[in-house]
Specification:
single chain, elongated
Length: 110
């Protein structure tokens, strides 16, 4: 698949914007995130991922979209074991719920 440099720049720019929003806008303060809010954010990110698959479908065709969705599904399934490991590490070191996001993002914990 041949991808233009403009598409790569747009993708990298989008990722940088999303990371900046996540780290410096939505999670400025350390707080415990309720399950309902976490589920809503998960739905937002999954929707973005599936929207990208739709964009690929119309831009590059069904083969590219299917390949992306296969990789996306594998990555999501593999991330479940990461969540388990994070939970074990947080409980072992006694990291309070409100600081777990900061620890994951390697930001200073007061």
């Amino acid at each position: 698949m041949d991808v233009s440099p403009i598409a790569w720049i747009a993708l990298i720019g989008f990722i940088v914007v999303v990371l900046i929003l996540d780290l410096f806008v939505f999670h400025r303060k350390a707080a415990v995130i309720p399950v309902k809010e976490a589920a809503a954010w998960s739905a937002v990110w999954v929707t973005l991922g599936l929207s990208f698959a739709a964009l690929l479908y119309f831009w590059q065709g069904h083969v590219a979209a299917e390949e992306y969705l296969a990789g996306y599904l594998i990555e999501k399934s593999l991330s479940v074991d990461n969540i388990f490991v994070f939970a074990l590490i947080f409980s072992y070191f006694g990291i309070p719920d409100r600081y777990q996001h900061r620890v994951l993002m390697l930001r200073a914990v007061p």
